[in-house]
Design goal:
Length: 110
């Protein structure tokens, strides 16, 4: 579920016509690329010039796969999880997520 907003708001903007994207949202990929120096998204968006845009055409084909295969599979999976999710399962999933975000204490401080 967390991946879907990133997909629509950052990754797939390279495929949308520019006039479809409000200016406030068109700044998200710029911010992301400035923050991370991601050569894939930066090149697919054309931030690094035409030569990079042409060189990373293969990555734009991966974005098409993401748009037309991965997104529908995510949605189908979310629907399936929603139908079978119980309160007990939800609390266990939340516990796993919380446990994975807390760094383990590996060194004893004296």
């Amino acid at each position: 579920m967390i991946h879907l907003p990133a997909t629509f708001l950052i990754d797939l903007q390279a495929l949308y016509p520019k006039q479809w994207v409000p200016s406030i949202l068109s700044n998200l990929p710029k911010f992301y690329v400035e923050m991370s120096s991601d050569p894939l998204i930066g090149s697919a968006m054309g931030y690094f010039g035409q030569s990079h845009l042409d060189a990373y055409t293969w990555f734009r084909s991966f974005l098409l796969v993401e748009a037309f295969f991965q997104v529908p599979v995510f949605v189908i999976g979310l629907i399936g999880l929603w139908k079978v999710m119980t309160v007990d399962m939800a609390s266990r999933v939340q516990s796993l997520v919380a446990a994975s975000t807390v760094p383990p204490k590996t060194v004893k401080q004296d």
